[in-house]
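pinned: reference chain
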Amino acid sequence: MSQFESQALEVSVVIPTRNRAPRVAALLDSIARVRETQLAWEVIVVDNGSTDRTATVVRQAASMAHMPIRYVSEPEPGLHAGRHRGAREARGEVVAYLDDDTQVHEDWLRGAEPVLRGLADAVACRILPQWEAPVTSWLEDLVSTGVYGPLTLLDLGEEQREVEPEFVWGAGFFIRRSLVFDLNGFHPDSMPAELLRFRGDGESGLMRKFAAAGHRAWYDPSSVVEHAMSTKRMTHLYLRERFYRQGISDSFAELRAELLSRVDLGPAAGLAESPRPAARTQPRVAPEGLLHVTPRRMAGGIRRGRAWASRNLTASRRSRLRFDEDMRRAALRGRDFHRRAAESDTGVMAWVRLPHYIDVSLSDFSSFAGPLDSHDVTRPEG
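pinned: its structure tokens
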């Protein structure tokens, strides 16, 4: 038994990856520069089916590291499989999840302390962009608030504070290890293109269960993660694809909510996700006169509204409205793709209704290669 193997640990860093050896090398290099701390910790890189030099990169980093770095192979497809395998392998009380296209600042490990001190059960990192090309004005506008989910950017300011669990995002967060299993784990995420119909809502599904169980989440601005923004990621085309995949995730969550509402699939079946809103006691009342508007008059009003916008809105505002509409349509196409897949493939619906995805093999559900539907993903709006 090595010195590392006999050491009691408090934090296990889990990095799922697939075919991103250069990114993993840069991330491990940044981890090696983390400021010395009293915490005992380890790093686990979970290789989710790579065919590049990932294994070599990890083993080279491990030979020079001042903390244990382990390489683990997990052939089951999907980011959730890598995250679950990492949690099983972890020896620390807290799991620190990082995406493989991130780098950390020297005080990043401080994010584990609120969990270890019992102040929180999960901690959201401050996730900043690492721009790899000049930032265009439209993109700068999108991220100007510091919070932009489609690019997984989260900057809630300089104060450590309690936040809603929905702000715990996968690029960088800490969570009590036992909760990963107590809450039945992550939902499916980041599937290969041919298995896109089996995509789910990833850590969002886990954090809904986390919130429903009454657990607390914190935001720690000193725990900084930089998220790589490649030239490809800084384009309309990438964001359109990102919204398309979000539409698939939304459909997955909606279908599970619909299944939960059925008598035979209640909490006893393991599908409890979050409290449902209270039933409406009064019917919706339409504004007076609305039902008297004919389709012809409504269409005329829409045309006049568009003409007014064209005359009065600035060019930048019109451009943003067009962008928002483009992304909305991409999300709807993703949702429609998933709904069609669920209707035509019994394996997809069986997959959606599983109580959990820990130690579940997708091969039992994917009997044939599904539709890539790449035309819908990349088609520009007219």
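why pinned: Residues 10-231 form a domain with the Spore Coat Polysaccharide Biosynthesis Protein SpsA; Chain A fold (CATH 3.90.550.10). The CA atoms of residues 6 and 313 lie 66 Å apart.
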